[in-house]
UniProtKB/TrEMBL annotation:
Keywords: DNA-binding, Transcription, Transcription regulation. It holds the Pfam family AraC_binding. InterPro entries: AraC-bd (IPR003313), Homeodomain-like_sf (IPR009057), HTH-like (IPR037923), HTH_AraC (IPR018060), HTH_AraC-typ_CS (IPR018062), Tscrpt_reg_AraC-type_HTH (IPR020449). This is HTH araC/xylS-type domain-containing protein. Residues 193-291 form the HTH araC/xylS-type domain. GO terms for molecular function: DNA-binding transcription factor activity; sequence-specific DNA binding. It comes from the Bacteria.
Amino acid sequence: MDNLSQRDGFMGQKMIVLPDSLKKRFRENPIIQNFHLTDIGYFPRAMRHKRTREHGSDEYIFMYCVEGEGWYQSEGERHHIGPNQFLIIPKNTPHTYGSALDNPWSLYWIHFKGTLAGNLYKRYTDLEHTVVSIPYQSRRVEQFKNIYSTLTQSYLTPPLEYVNLSTLSFISLFVYDHIAQKDAPEEIEDIVESIIVFLEANLERPLKTDDITKEFNYSASYIFSIFKKRTGYSLINYFNLKKIQKACEYLQYSDLNIKEISYKMGFQDPLYFSRSFKKHMGMSPKKYKLNV
């Protein structure tokens, strides 16, 4: 019997439990019968989240913590789980897990099964640690969102095949990360991903070079160099592009005028904002607003 402290009610949660009829289609489909998901979800800041399965689960369970903390216990061992850490719980193994009371986790999770699923789990056990740390990369979260979104839109066979193959790719990004990292310059991927997250979280601020160098404790020349090599954009050009893309949303979906949007996006000079907007979008903010 499964014991559950709280499964539903986390603000902003996303969860899909697939019906048996769909799972049957997966098992009969030669493309995905060896690897397919059965449940998928995201629990943000999951206060009092706790789950006990006295007899384990019929599926493997992938869990990825992006913030906060939690724990996992099985076969008499208890493991701490923190930000940028993941684990895979083996099927048919009694276990309990839960979020920390004072700092609840935000958790992406997927239940999956199939012959290939078992082989992938065995490769995961080669990593030697039950809970594995991994550098943050925004593309992982974006891939999860794509899988979830596709699954909500169609139950036709080709999209479902795409979802399951993408899920295999998604979990493989974690299991084989140590190999992928060998091909990348040391720490560069992680640093650039962190800079991108920082920039996108501060689009409404007029950030200066000093703000970024202090945040990451690297010289300006080093940050500018690795950012350009990784993205193809100069850091300032990328930041302004993201500001302009956000401004497009305000022009389309809000009643703010162009001057107000300019200030809101951290441009102190509306004329400079208009020139930047035209540079990136090929038209003035006024013309863009008339066309959308």
